[in-house]
TrEMBL record:
The lineage of its organism: Bacteria, Bacillati, Actinomycetota, Actinomycetes, Nakamurellales. GO terms for molecular function: succinate-semialdehyde dehydrogenase (NAD+) activity. The active site is at E264. InterPro entries: Ald_DH/histidinol_DH, Ald_DH_C, Ald_DH_CS_GLU, Ald_DH_N, Aldehyde_DH_dom, Aldehyde_DH_Superfamily. This is NAD-dependent succinate-semialdehyde dehydrogenase. It comes from the Bacteria. CDD domains: ALDH_F5_SSADH_GabD (cd07103).
Length: 491
């Protein structure tokens, strides 16, 4: 049945209207003197406003997290897990509301937003299960006598800063392990997409989370609110997902206090297609690796490195698939590509394309803005992109696929590693030895072999080089929120 404009606007009003829009501090919804407008990137219209916290209110959130820390750490692991499990179920029960909310504030097509609900909720379930599996070690010292006891304890209050591109999953990927470990949290979502985190806080409360264990601070003054929190000796951990430049600033601020940090930063993923690749799979993988989240993912394939013998065939097939995508508001029936998150992001994408074209790239499809309402950019494939083009070194963060060719495995690998980033790489080959050789040679935290998406709540997500420090998800994810204490016991 066709969805009318009226249906949609009534649905939008209902879903947005149900989200609490004040600050969440110590279990209370707290108003702020100023408000931030939240925009729908498909129309440029304001969806609603949320509280704009002052630095004092940020500190009040830290006070609440500190006050709740001791009792939360002492809560039985099973109880912490049960709360996370109930939150997982509640997110699923409200899957459609969460999905539409993300589509509205961030722009992604509804089917992808539904996918993020499943992915994001899974971190709550995964860490609900990990909460009861925190354990240490007991050993006899090699020289005998002394016994070595190793225990794991929650690090303490955590400050979590999240980006706008995966509003639910970036929150649950931090909250799940932090809460499972027994840490309390102040979370600051991106100012472009605060609504999903606020809705998640309401879900956690309904799931039985005690007051003060999670506190949400929405603000347009991220630096001014964050600095005093990071400088406060009661804070024990900073976990950040966002761009590398902001990550560098936060590491510098944390260095003063030697604050424990996890950093999930930018990426510049190479997508390698070797001469022995199954090209059908490679094109399917390319569509996912490039177009998931409209290209606005840290894991997005940023450079397509294709063996010269298959480059033309790959480029033509890839361009045909990209040209056939339906670009429309994410909540419109059949939308496959939504708008970019804001005008600034779209201008940056257009600038990078113009630069690549200036340096000799050929536009196979796309290469332009779409429409005069919202921030739409056409799915784009560029062939013959120079390694000197800006997009070879910078995150594109949009639906643009640059193709560069290589002549040998060694050259492909060297090009893949020619970046300061090291988050993820993709490689397509049917040769097992090559897949292993290349996986070992890639300077990244993650590798996808013959697949265009690697993110999985049960696997450790994270990067090397300028892509960050630490891992989220998997068995490793909870370790980031635990201290190891060693106790030597003389017999
Ligand atoms: P961003 O760095 O601009 O902002 C991220 C968060 O930091 C936001 O909440 C923002 O308000 C806040 N922030 C900005 N300046 C700050 C400051 N001085 N002090 C404290 N907080 C500050 O990034 P973005 O544009 O929101 O997100 C896109 C970036 O995130 C891309 O670079 C992308 O690759 C990266 N990202 C990485 C991962 C990963 O897991 N590695 C996942 C998603 C996104």
């Amino acid at each position: 049945m066709a969805v009318t404009a009226q249906d949609i606007s009534a649905q939008i009003d209902r879903v947005v209207g149900a989200v609490p829009t004040d600050l969440f501090i110590g279990g209370q919804w707290v108003a702020a003197a100023e408000r931030i407008e939240v925009e729908n990137p498909a129309t440029g219209e304001t969806l609603t406003t949320v509280a704009d916290a002052t630095p004092e209110q940020g500190m009040a959130a830290l006070d609440a997290a500190v006050a709740a820390q001791v009792s939360w750490a002492a809560t039985d692991p099973r109880e912490r897990g049960e709360i996370l499990r109930r939150a997982f179920e509640l997110v699923h029960a409200r899957a459609e509301q969460f999905a539409l909310l993300m589509t509205l504030e961030m722009g992604k097509p509804l089917p992808e937003a539904r996918g993020e609900v499943v992915y994001g909720a899974e971190f709550l379930r995964w860490f609900a299960e990990e909460a009861v599996r925190i354990h240490g070690r007991y050993a006899v010292a090699p020289s005998g006598g002394t016994r070595l006891l190793t225990m794991k304890q929650p690090v303490g209050p955590v400050y979590a800063i999240t980006p706008w591109n995966f509003p639910l999953a970036m929150g649950t990927r931090k909250l799940g392990p932090a809460l499972a470990a027994g840490c309390t949290v102040v979370i600051k979502p991106a100012e472009l997409t605060p609504l999903t985190t606020l809705a998640l806080a309401a879900v956690l409360t309904e799931a039985g989370l005690p007051d003060g264990v999670v506190n949400v601070v929405t603000t347009s003054r991220s630096a001014a609110v964050s600095e005093p929190i990071i400088a406060d000796p009661r804070l024990r951990k900073l976990t950040f997902t966002g761009s590398t430049p902001v990550g560098r600033t936060l590491i510098a601020q944390s260095a003063e206090r030697v604050l424990k940090v996890s950093m999930e930063l930018g990426g510049n993923a190479p997508f390698l297609v070797f001469d022995d690749a199954d090209l059908d799979r490679a094109v399917d993988g390319a569509m996912l690796a490039k177009m998931r989240n409209i290209g606005e993912a840290c894991t997005a394939a940023n450079r397509f490195l294709v063996h010269e013998s298959v480059a033309e065939d790959f480029a033509q097939r890839f361009a045909a698939r990209m040209a056939a995508l339906t670009v429309a508001p994410g909540y419109a029936e059949g939308s496959q590509v939504g708008p970019l998150v804001d005008g600034r992001s779209r201008d940056k994408v257009a600038e990078l394309v113009a630069d690549a074209v200036d340096r000799g790239a050929r536009v196979l499809t796309g290469g332009k803005n779409i429409g005069d309402r919202g921030w739409f950019y056409a799915p784009t494939v560029l062939q013959g992109v120079s390694t000197e083009a800006r997009m070879f070194g910078e995150e594109i963060f949009g639906p643009v696929a640059p193709i560069t060719t290589f002549a040998s495995e060694d050259e492909g690998l060297a090009l893949a590693n020619r970046t300061e980033y090291g988050l993820v790489a993709y490689a397509f080959t049917q040769d097992l030895s090559r897949a292993l050789r290349v996986s070992e040679g890639l300077e990244t935290g993650m590798v996808g072999i013959n697949q265009g998406v690697v993110s999985n709540p049960a696997a450790p997500f994270g990067g090397v080089k300028a892509s960050g420090l630490g891992r989220e998800g998997g068995a490793e994810g909870i370790d980031e929120y635990l201290e190891t204490k060693y106790v030597g016991i003389a017999l």
